[in-house]
Amino acid sequence: MNFFKSLLASFLGTFVALGLIALFFFIGIAAITTTVNFEKTEGSWVRENSILNLDLNANIVDRGPAFNPIENFSDFDSGSVGMDKILGSIYKAKNDQNIKGIKIKSGGITAGWVQAREIRNALKEFKESGKFIYAYSDYMSQMGYYVSSIADSVFMNPTGILELKGLSSEVLYYEDFQNQYGVKMEVIRHGKYKSAVEPYLQDHMSDENRIQIQRLLDASWETLRDEIAQSRKIVPSTLDVLVNDLVINDADKALAQGMIDGLVYEDNFENKIKAALQIDPKEKLRTLDFNNLNIRIQEYDKEITDRIAIIYAQGPILYTQGSESIIGKDAVKEAFQEISDSKNIKAVVLRVDSPGGDALTSEILHNASKTLKNKKPLVVSMGNVAASGGYYIACSADKIFADPMTITGSIGVLAAFPNIRGITEKIGIYAEQVTTHQNAMGYSVFEPLSEGFEKSVKTQIEKIYHTFKSRVAEGRSLNMETVEEFAQGRVWSGKDAVDIGLVDSLGGLNKAITSAAELAKLKKYNLVDYPKFDNDLESILLGTFSKVKSKILQYPLEKYASEFIELSKLEGIQTRIPYSIKME
Fold first, then answer.
1. Which 3 state secondary structure label does DSSP give 129?
2. How far is 355 from 112, CA to CA, in rounded Å?
3. Are strands 407-409 and 378-387 parallel, antiparallel or unpaired?
4. For residue 460, which phi and psi values (nearest 5 degrees)?
5. Coil/strand/helix, residue 465
6. CA atoms within 13 A of residue 562's CA, in its CB half-sphere
7. Does domain 45-165+246-293 fall into CATH 3.90.226.10?
8. Domain coordinates of the chain in residue numbers?
9. How far apart are CA 139 and CA 93, in angstroms?
10. What gap in Å lies between CA 36 and CA 510, rounded to an integer?
11. Considering the domain 307-576 in this protein, what is its CATH number?
12. Pick from 48, 80, 220, 241: most CB atoms within 10 A?
């Protein structure tokens, strides 16, 4: 018996040791690769007549995840790419005289509309520098075509499909589901537009909610339509007709209507680029994958000591440590404090992409940002969403920039508490309580909200809502009556937010950085990213486990998985945007 125990122990020990050796081997290889790529960017290694190969068929986020060797060598790699790195490669290519053009593949791009527009604007600057852009795809989604439309020439597979249909948003309602299955959300809200909890209260969309979503879609479509029309030299109203009647749904029709420039297969597409370079068709095309130019928006210069910090606030706001995809009070506060204490950091850009979340954490981070602002210039750059709690932490900045398609505002408060009494009674589970005082039980998942508890929560909501409005009034130099007019939980596009004074100007991350430099009176500076997250073995393993678990849970739910997961996060008092607004 002891022999078998020893054998088993040896086997397990050897297995674990080999696993760790493999892990550290991958980490070592990654470190060497990173170093080599970094050294390449420092030299003049780019050959003459080179082309930047910009494959955007990836999941694009504001700030890409840290390198995880386990994910990178497995099927659990998220495949996420940081928008900052994409922008960096485009700016690098624009300034490198050996790079003559860019070829884009963006048909299957997965990103927010704001990220897509910032990439498109960077491509526009590249094009305006006198260099060319050619785009190709077998299939083009609506977002993919929007990005590609900035190109000098757009080519498609002769049997390709182009999706250009306008914008829509779908909201799920659960009143009948709750009544049938006995799972109910007890909700308390303030503001007629605070419709995050509306799906729990009824089985149809309210007029107020339809008005705000319609306006959001209309304002966003105007931006997309006008920019596509300008690039393709088409009258906007004509484009509306084509889109409304789904006229341009395949490559042949798209070509006939002037939406693309040619029908070719991919191997012949390269010949088009060679012709633009004026090189022999038999000569090999010199291309660089954008990862080889995968640098920051601005290269780091060791001779310059002045810095501008970019704080990436991505994801829901939670009372926790925080991560690359969660805005936690601890990580962000630590970043604020480190930046505040740094003598070299002269200004700060807070990049917000968040639907909001925990009300208390939003107030804590607002106070921290206000304290930082009193020491150094603070500029906010709004991404896809900077609403409710996301707007809360942004409103005290010296300047706020938003994209026309940013979803912002949603100044309001709500509370939601799950109640499963109906389903537990159906399966024979009953809860009984014994207390010393009338409201000692507080909240129980097995009981409807008590009168005392509901009254207490309403009082808290009113207080938080008043505090939220006062923070906005102070930060934006508005009176409380004006804030109330634009609040009540209503969401606004970035375009409309400028008109009503919630945002200072339209512009992307690069414009916010330039503004921060101007406020700090800097002409030369380096950029540094925050928050800083540990990339130790524990963090790598925990991060991988989290993604494995997420994939397992989401697989059966497919399309609606993210919606169910988002709804489950609404428990407690929230400064959070109404549900998940997706414009497709």
1. coil
2. 13
3. parallel
4. -65, -40
5. helix
6. 6
7. yes
8. 1-43, 45-165+246-293, 307-576
9. 26
10. 27
11. 3.90.226.10
12. 220
